[in-house]
Write a structure and sequence with these properties.
The complex is a heterodimer of chains A (358) and B (704). With 358 residues, chain A is mainly α. Helix content of chain A is 49%, strand content 0%. Chain A has helices spanning 2-7, 12-15, 35-62, 69-94, 122-125, 138-147, 167-180, 211-228, 237-244, 270-278, 293-316, 325-341, 352-357. The longest helix of chain A has 28 residues, at 35-62. Chain B is α+β, with helices and mostly antiparallel strands. Chain B has helices at 157-163, 206-209, 311-322, 343-356, 365-375, 437-447, 461-471, 515-518, 559-565, 641-647; strands spanning 4-9, 12-16, 23-25, 72-83, 96-98, 103-104, 107-120, 165-172, 178-182, 188-191, 194-197, 214-216, 222-228, 234-237, 243-245, 266-268, 271-281, 286-287, 292-297, 330-331, 334-335, 568-569, 580-583, 592-593, 611-612, 653-656, 671-674, 693-694. In chain B, strands 1, 3, 4, 5, 9, 13 and 14 form a seven-stranded mixed β-sheet that branches. In chain B, strands 2, 6, 7, 8, 17, 18 and 19 form a seven-stranded mixed β-sheet that branches. In chain B, α3 (311-322) packs across α7, α4 (343-356) runs antiparallel to α5 (365-375) and α9 crosses α10. Chain B starts with a strand and ends in a 10-residue tail after the last strand. The chains are: A mainly alpha (358), B alpha+beta (704). Chains A and B meet through α11 and α12 of A and α5 of B.
Chain lengths: 358, 704
Amino acid sequence: MGLYSHLNITSADDLLQARNLVPPTRVSHDSAWTLEKLQEHLQWAVDIELYTIPFYMASMYSIKDQSAEARRLLRSVVNQEMLHMQCAANIANAYGTELVIRAPSYGGAIPHLDFALDTPNPTEIFTPYSTTIGPLDVAHINAMCIIEFPDWDKCHSQNEGDEYGSIGEFYKAVRRGAVVLADNIQANRNQVGHFKAIYPDAGSLTITEQGEAGLAQVNNLINLIVDQGEGDSGRDARAELSERTDPLKGSFVDSKYQNNVDDLQPTWDHFEKFSYLRGQPLPETYPITFGSDRGREVQDILLGHFGEFLIEMNKVFRGQDGRNFGNTMYKVGAGIAACWENGVAPIFAKPAEQQENK
Amino acid sequence: MNKTVFRIHPAIGIARVGNSDEYYLAPESIAAMPQPGKVGDATTGGLPIRPGTEDTIINSSEIRDANGGFKRQAARFRIFAYPEDGVTQYPADGGTEVSIGSKINGKTVKDIVWTVHLANKKSSWFANNDDLGVVAYENGNTPTLRNLREGLDPHNSNRLRKLIIDAGPRALNGTNNSASFDVASQPCLGKGACIEDIDNYPKSFPFDHFQNLEEHQGRIDTLGDMNTDDKGRLIVAGGFGRSAGWPLDEDDIPVPINGPVNNDQWFDDTSDGPVRATLVFDDGTTADPFSAWVVATDPSYAPQTLNVVSLFDEAYDTFVRNLDLQPEVYRNGHFNDDYVPAFDDHIHPLFRATAQQLWNAYLPKFAIDAHKAVGRITADDNPDATILAGLAYIRRPDPGTEASWKAQSSDVGAPLMPLALGDSSAAGGKPFLSPTMSQYHFLTCWANKRYSKQASKPLSAGEYLDRATLQNCLGGRFSPGIDMTWVIRETSMYIQDWQNGAGPFRIKHKTLDYSAIAKKQPYLPQPAFLTFGWIPRHPDVEFDGLEPGDATKFMALPWHADYNSCAIHQTSPNKQDSNTLYWSWPAQRPVTVYTADDFTGSSFEDLPPQRYSVRGPGTYPGENSPSNKHNLANAGRFWDYRNMLDHWNEIGIIMQATQIDDGKKYPDDVYLEVQSQLKDGPPELADPTPWPMVAGDGTATRKK
């Protein structure tokens, strides 16, 4: 059980015990970057991307109509978040990070970020919001908008030691750290290369080079994440926010990062898609009922699948054989659907009392 | 004493063309499912049967004759006896095969007289409207007539005489006899215990009416032959895959063939028609079983790949929801929530079909793994714990009105299954295929743990033949299809009061008055015997029954062109102008295959790279190619439709390794292409790539 030993766990259940991680602190000066610091950031990058996947998937499968525009837009975002997690993990591995992937914690603050540092503060614009796992509703769409909130240039704190305000800002720091520590890039270390067929023009989705060439690949992956995600225009925040609430006004994803295979709106970044959904009637979602034995059973099954999926991800992103990765991933989706069908919300971590009992 | 009802099974038999005089028998087991009565046999169903045997399936060396000819698939018909009080339900009670020498109700069957009448009406019929399907026939409308140059009145007898290939009827009795539906032989008809010649029957073949025919694979001078075996069963083998085009003038050579479905000036030698029988008993009495129908159509190049939606699924759905087939399943416009479907009967075939798709289509590894996981689901598994929990990946059939199809789940591609192109509809076409309403209902029952492991009342042997035959054919994606098209959903095509003995899925025959022919003046030009025939959604004729040729006339002309074309396409409609390609008929028209020649490993994990099923010279690039010759949408098919007319018989068959007898060792669970005579593709053509496949200029070209 080499993997369990590396992860310091005894079973998949251990990975399901979500923990609130300490947010990364800002690194503002090149001299402050160390490899350990960069690896911490990259671990957090993987955590951030993973955080979005169950959160968005749960909302997506809560929508009854398979063809609903909201469901299709959400699916396109979920797929790209999986790509982003792969990209973040590939960068992390190129810098020698020993990744540990465990269940995200929902219901509290959005991890790693302090949006109060942003001007405007997205948590004041997109309110009310909820970070609990739940159906697609106002509170969850608002949370999605906050998560994908663009990085407004010069609108945030620059103080060393503060938290980051947005994912965009966080990646901006990672980009700088990657440059400073470019000599540490290892080619072909635990790289995973899915999604290439969907993004044939995006360049290499893996880090296959060292040094300058490797750094260019790192930057490309960061560009992909930021460009598809919350965008990074460097423009005035309020003007852009106004424009972005009308998605018909612009295209925000570079053509090479667009999914032209099966995305309803390949030119829209995630923030744009969620902003658009805020202006649309809410689709019909599965109701939460008072619970049933079967509901609890499907929650447990989903939890089991997600635990296996965490194991598979830890394997895959450590260069081990993850032959069950795909099927386990599909089972997680199926488990989420089964939860909603049975009137219960999906769960992705052990409830607190179960953790205490262990 | 309880009376006996006799039926011919299968109710619809499927023969398939080949360019060999030899034939094998149509499969009598369901593709991808266990073979009935062969517990523990690793070979799944769907493979043809060696002639002269009950159920010995063929090996790979039996696909072609000694000269390399592609054998035809013949349909075998048998007669079954049922107690009269057991036929009002489905499945029926009883069902015992009756052959020459059988004793029934104290009488011995002395002889069986069979009559079959084959015709091809494609050239005389309407052009197929892929998007509208049957809707094009509603409200008194029809699509545009094919071959308008031969006359604007579809009912004009001279037009019909020229454009219908009609061999006339043939009859046979006894054992090990044969007759041909050719130019030379005498039309004849079973009449009670006797066979009577029909003098002056107006047989009609293309060369009777057109000069300078462009003929491929030989002259269309026959639609096949019929035989009896040593028990007096009937075996019908169809045509030879020939085609013929007639030029309008000397400047019209070669004859244009520019589209997949509706080519004027062309004939092919597929056909269909009624199959009747008379049982002759030793006491001089006779009995006429409920008749059957034979359809002779395209070859089946992947006989063990089950279609996710098959002709049986379509016919069953039609009968359940419209003809009261099983009131316990569906009544008064609603599925019965108390009905408990059987896993082996209604659910497992869908899972097995899913698992088989990889052999004919190029799936990414994730999809292959997922499909295999679906195929492994058993009745003992907790549905909630499987990869199909919540039916998260099943595309819902459209529960709403046809006009709203465009806005429903038929417009959503991956990861919903099946990831195959859609069907015709009132709204102008569905981008993606869905299970039938019945299939989806049964899946819903399974997902909610409301199912039994096995059917409480299995089909009788004859009913199983009905099902196996149709289940091995393509359903859905009727654009127009391979074997039969959307007509399978038309209630007017069938004997609707099936409870009176006929049983379900039995085509209604139009009564043909052959005696009228004898009254004609023998030396005067004969009008066509067959009429324009059955027209769906036209109440004046739609309930009259079908004539010979009425089932296949809706299909592509010539079939080769459509087979060539329907590999991978963009969706239609394509609201986003997406270049993404999807499979058209993946189970029936292999796109990419693993060849036995390439396989050198010892397990499933050792599969070699795939090749296009249709490959070699002519597939790319073509002389005089239009500007999009590098488009991946055109890969894996002949650039010039005409090439398929000459090379369809060279395509290989996909067969489970257990039946490959080339001397190599293979694992049991792989299905490999064998007996292809097509050479490898030109080097400029890019190797097949797994989905997502994207069309566009340059996408088919190997990167330098």
